[in-house]
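Input record (one chain):
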Amino acid sequence: MGIGKRIKEARNALNMTQEELAKLLGVTKGAVANYENETSHPKEPVMYKMFEALQVDANYLFQDVVNIPKKNNDVTISEYEHIEKYRYLDTNGQELIDLILNREFNRTKILKEKEEQLAELNKATLPRYVVTYYQRMASAGKGMFLFDDIPTDLIEVPDTPVAHMADFVIEVIGDSMEPTYHDGDKVFVKKLDEMPNGNIGIFIKGNDCFIKELGVDRLISHNKDYPDIPASEDIRLVGKVLGRVDEFDL
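The corresponding structure, as predicted from the sequence alone:
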């Protein structure tokens, strides 16, 4: 988890919007979005305000980018809150929590081991299909560049009907389409010149590339922290998103 996601996690833990954080920092909402997407980083004076506004210290925000021992710094804000509640309980309450925690830990551990074994078995037996792959080019936040002549890679995906329908796979960057698509998701795309409203597609505006839902007069962001993009003649549809690659990796 990078500093951007740490900032977002701390903000959400306080039930604070990007606009509210921006006012506390003396910056724009777009600047906060850029910090969280890691397309830019706050300067030193802003960072000091960030610690106070989010009620965190440097260790919390920077633990993934500097060599800080994980055992001392990998607890989230919500986990700290659970610890505080646990300490408030009497002995009987703590013993009950310990009993449930140990039981659920063992149950989850066994399930995860079985899932990992099954996943490895599926990967070994499931036929694979090779498609064209654009790395981190479909922005779900600030626009990223997509050119017709950009070099592409090849990626192996499950050999499914959806994979054969797709013309390429592209990686999402940013979180403006959460909870539908997340930063780092790989999605199948079918090239189209037009598609019905309500579908999610890859769009180009100038040199910027976006993954958005097609609306009547706008491109819609599913994450309400981000504004929609008004329709204009310079927006071009690249293709329809068919779904995440991992949805079919079963």
